[in-house]
Amino acid sequence: MKKSVVALLCSFLSAALVPALAQSPRYVPRPNVDQWHLKHYPFDNPNLPAEQRIDNLLSLMTLDEKIDCLGTDTGVPRLGVPNIGSSEGIHGVVQRQPRPGRPAIATTQFPQPPGMGDSWDPNLVREAAGVEGYEARYITQTPGYNRQILMLWGPQSDLDRDPRWGRSEEVYGEDPFFNGSMAAAFVHGLQGNNPKYWQSASLLKHFLANENENFRTSSTSNFDERLFWEYYSVPFRMAFQEGGARGVMASYNAWNGIPMAINPVLRSIVIDKWHVDIVSSDGGAIHLLVDPRRLFPDQEDAVVAAFHAGINQFLDFYRDQMIQAVKDGKVTEAEIDSALRGKFRVEIKLGLLDPPDMVPYTRIRQTGNEPPPWNTDRDRSVSQKMALESVVLLKNQDKFLPLDKTKIKSIAVIGPLANVVHWDWYGGTPPYTVTPLKGIQDEVGSGVKVNYAPDDTMDGEAAALKAAKESDVAVVVVGNNPTCGPDQAHEWVNAPDGGNTLPCTVPSDGREGRDRQTMTLYQEQLIKQVYDVQPKTVVMLIASFPFTINWSQQHVPAILTMAQSSQDEGTALAKVLFGDYNPGGHLVRTWPKSMRQLPPRMDYNIRDGYTYMYFRGEPLYPFGFGLSYTTFKFANLRTSTPTLAADGSLNVSVDVTNTGDRAGDEVVQLYVSWPKPQVVRPREELEGFQRIALNPGETKTVTIPLNASQIAFWDVGTHAFRVLPEPIQVMVGDSSADLPLNATVQVQ
User: Fold this and answer.
1) In the beta sheet, which residues pair with residue 511?
2) Residue 137 in 3-state DSSP?
3) pLDDT per residue over 385-439, tens digit each?
4) CA atoms of 63 and 595, how far apart (whole Å)
5) 50 φ, ψ to 5°?
């Protein structure tokens, strides 16, 4: 009896989609430098070229061993080859699922990727990823944990084209250059700073244009060749070419009718041009080629097609089918050897085939009674810094914030998110959490009475209004539930509306398998009721997505937002609320005033009105927007040369002054526009950015490089990037809608 798509996907939730997936319990320690030669295997010799070592290893493996390595387990126990292993890891190592002999492990949890993006700080993103990579090494090399997780599945390098997308909580933002900069930084952090070895490896997700959840198992994302090169593939290309990533996961969807698991671009571009070594299918994606896509009559033919397209890591039933395919002459052992070479290149980069004495990262393990890294000041300080930098101030009427603890005697903390830090499907279990309520209580101490009312049920509503009335100021903490409910792992179904999960209780929530039905914040009614009895109200919006909070923006004096799932959520919000930290985060997505401002959901042609580059009308909050408790002035924009050669670069410099009375961070953003475009161009396009810290009265000169290659367009006639001789306008400011300085540069 044929399994249904849902049944197959559910089986892979336990074997592939569930975090901490496909981990072999085997760990084969390598010999030390003085012992490696005793094994008599040339692949053990670190002095030989990598390809020669791989030749020898493949020559020693049986066909069954080779086919086994086409899954997620790269180990060859008979030859002493360790398994790389894998774990989800877009904003922290994910080891929350206990298994026999392997308990759940708490690991450092940063804000969801949009929150990390809101920091506009690639160096901090790199530092956070370094924490994650270190923790993965520590777990792998500490025998008591009994698992291998050296390939972290992240960063998520897709683009948030549409704020209704249920998985937009997993990506950095809507701009290709921005997302690529963050993805490359994240990859660098995972891999570490050693010039020869990697601390951990990266597997990017999900190639390509995987930006709808409803009907994702049968849908196609249709757009032209220019958008492929100039928009959708940019973050992946930057993560490969600038970050050095060597792994990627193909997405469920099709591009222009051809599913990504068998799309020719996997080989012609991803492997041949970008030199990617590991190309993985997504969980259950191969069977989807049979049902519902009906492109192949059976699983064997689907496996063979994906393999020939470039897939060398299957998250699906493949082993028996591959054995039969070899017998049938559809796949040769030589082809399998070729496919496995990339996997073993990654194994060598991780130092898994070298003597431990040669690999500095082998020292990362439990050696005594010291605490695990997630319980150290080092990792906690990075977590707190990321949480703080991710907070965005959306409104601050008449300098309502920061609150002065010495001038208030009571504060109401109200709302369903006030005393919880939500986990998300691609997050792990943190070693601790600080809720907004706890953060505020810790911040004010015993000198200020905190009146807490948890939710907006009928009884809770009365308590909320009572707390607001009896307090000097009210803080309403609202937002989404990242999992849409308490039991996401068991809610996978084929819904009639195309979702792969049960509908969310709240229509504006979303998650993997379920797009958002609306962008209305249903808890805004609670905000209205609290504001009606207490005009001194602050909204804390803990959100994975943009919301159309038009009423709150018009009426409430102050609004803060940050992404879900940071273990230091409450600490960051409390420090910002009371002025111990000046918020400097900026939005990475355009927040519409209404869903009516958006094109149809399946319209992947962004020129029809998606993103700040083509958005039609006035947004609620523009891309790049963020306020501060201080003020900044931009002046003296200049370029290092008045012209830009087609193969050259120039520097754009601007003086930035803190004109207020508080120290603060500003995000300097460089955009380019085309006054007389020869081809279709965006209204404006981000080309560089830098977050800087300034003391009151301090001025800094910020210099941002601009390469001509960044403004090239993809010529569909020559199938190559081309820089046109034409004037461009360089513009600098602190959001896509606030660019006070500009200069014209002639491209030659």
Assistant:
1) 514
2) helix
3) 999 999 999 999 999 999 999 999 999 999 999 999 999 999 999 999 999 999 9
4) 54
5) -55, -45
For residue 111, give the DSSP letter. Answer: P
Whether residue 600 contacts residue 567, with contact meaning beta carbons closer than 8 Å, is answered with no
Measured CA to CA, the distance from residue 18 to residue 2 in angstroms comes to 23
β-sheet with 254-255: strand ranges across:
220-221, 254-255, 258-259
Provide the greatest CA pair distance for the chain: 81
Phi, psi of 607 (to 5 degrees): -65, -15
**In 197-282, which residue ranges form alpha helices assigned H by DSSP?**
225-227, 234-241, 265
- Write the pLDDT tens digit of every residue in 439-455: 999 999 999 999 999 87
CA distances from 450 to 470, 556, 572 (A): 10, 20, 18
**Tokens coding 676:** 């007389």
What's the rounded Cα separation, in Å, for the pair 501 and 13?
Answer: 12
Residue whose entry in the numeric block shows the structure tokens 């089918």: 321
pLDDT tens across 479-537, in order?
Answer: 999 998 766 666 788 888 888 888 898 999 999 999 999 999 999 999 999 999 999 99
Long-range contacts of 9-13 (CB under 8 A, 24+ apart): 9/217, 9/283, 9/284, 9/492, 9/500, 10/492, 11/284, 12/283, 12/284, 12/315, 12/316, 13/283, 13/489, 13/492
* 381 neighbors 571 (Cβ within 8 angstroms): no
Number of C-beta neighbours around residue 389 at 10 A? 25
459: confidence class by pLDDT, cuts 50, 70, 90: low
Q: What is the DSSP letter of 268?
A: I
Please choose, from the candidates 23, 100, 12, 107, the residue with its C-alpha nearest in 3D space to the C-alpha of residue 423.
Answer: 107
Q: How far apart are the first and last CA of the chain?
A: 65
The neighbouring-strand residues paired with 178 are: none
160: CB partners within 8 A, 6+ apart: 114, 168, 171, 172, 173, 174, 211, 588, 589
Using CA atoms, how far apart are residues 39 and 48, in angstroms rounded to an integer? 15
What residue type is 594 in one-letter code? S
Q: What are phi and psi of 146, to 5 degrees?
A: 60, 50
Residues in the chain: 748
> Rounded distance, CA 314 to CA 12, Å?
11
Give strand pairing partners of 207.
Answer: 250
Q: What is the pTM of this model?
A: 0.95
User: CB of 733 within 8 A of CB of 702?
Assistant: no
Are the C-beta atoms of 592 and 548 separated by less than 8 Å? yes
Give me 341's structure tokens: 């070479």
Transcribe 384-433 into DSSP letters.
HHHHHHH-EEEEEGGG-PSP-TTT-SEEEEESTTTT-----TT--B-S--
Cite the beta strand spans of 41-172 per DSSP E: 86-88, 151-153
Q: For residue 518, which amino acid is it?
A: T
Cα distance between residue 532 and residue 549, in whole Å: 16
User: How many Cα atoms occupy the beta-carbon half-sphere of 464 within 13 Å?
Assistant: 26
- Residue 314 contacts residue 281 (beta carbons within 8 Å): yes
Relative to beta strand 247-250, strand 258-259 is: unpaired
Gap between the Cα atoms of 680 and 608, Å rounded: 12
Beta bridge partners of 327: none
Long-range contacts of 463-466 (CB under 8 A, 24+ apart): 464/412, 464/414, 464/415, 464/526, 464/529, 464/530, 465/529, 465/530, 465/533
Peptide linkage before 292 cis (omega within 30 of 0):
yes
